[in-house]
Design a protein that fits this description.
mainly beta, Jelly Rolls, seven-stranded antiparallel β-sheet, five-stranded mixed β-sheet, 46% strand
Amino acid sequence: MTLRIEDGETITALDRREVVILGARPELTVTWTRYAGGEPGPGPHLHREHTDAFYVLEGELTFAVGPGAERVTVGPGAFVAVPPNTVHTFANDSGAEAAWLNFHAPDNGFAAYLRTGAAWDSFDAPADGGRPAGDVTVSGPGERERVVPGLRIVEWEEEPGAAPEHAGARWTFSHPRGVLEIRAPD
């Protein structure tokens, strides 16, 4: 199935930020998000039972991860995967707009939280600071396949909208640099 922003479920549609659920299943939820320049994200938090991952489509995102809130700034084509029990936050610290895909694998209540504010797998930073920043996966645009617990992403350089349905793919997403195959590993 091909994921398209225009077919998604709009959660937030403001001048400075938008959030759209592109696909939601128990094993994986995918959202598209846009922040205006300077837009802050959530406070430092962690997830105990799922991976929170990001694929930057345009602009830059700055993450603060681990007990020391180590800062990492990434741009288009970068992938950041935060494993369970790792404190993290993110923001668009730049002066330009940023857009990205966000993956929660497994969902663990994320889609319900977006829709209704229901409780889910998100907690304040613990006193010990959680897992070290080095446990966070950060990869650049040159890497074509990213596999982390609960999530597999493969990127092809093709014309936007020209991606065939790939056997075994949960979803595909076309963007200006190519096509992503997104799935929860079997």
